[in-house]
Amino acid sequence: MRIMTVCTTSFGFNGITGVIMNYFENIEGRDVAMDFVVINDVDDGLKERIKIKSDNLSRPSKIYKIQGRNKNPFGYIKKLTRILKEGNYDIVHIHGN
User: H or E element: which one contains 61?
Assistant: First the structure.
C-alpha cells in the first residue's frame, strides 16, 4: 500500500506534524510505503525519525518539498498533481488549513 501525506503548513515541531508522525510511526505492516509533501525544509531530527521507521517498511519514505503554495497556488497544484500521478498512491492524506 502506498500512502502520500501532504502537509499544507510548516512541517516542524507543531501539532499537525505531531499527528502525521504519530500515524507514520505506528503504521503496522512491512508492505506499507508512506511519502510526504511539505512546504519547508524538514528538521534533521524529523528526517532521522522518518528514516529510522522507513528502513523497516517495504521501501524508504520520500520527502517532496514544494514551495509557493500561497504565492503560486496553480504551480503548487501542478507539482503536487505530478507527484501524485507518478507515485500511484492508494491513499492521500492532507493535513493543514
Answer: none
User: HSE (CB half, 13 Å, CA atoms) of 66?
Assistant: 25
Cell of 92: 492521500
Contacts 24+ apart (CB under 8 A), 21-25: 21/46, 21/49, 23/93, 24/50, 24/53, 24/61, 25/49, 25/53
Tens-digit pLDDT profile for residues 20-61? 999 999 988 878 889 999 999 999 999 999 999 988 888 899
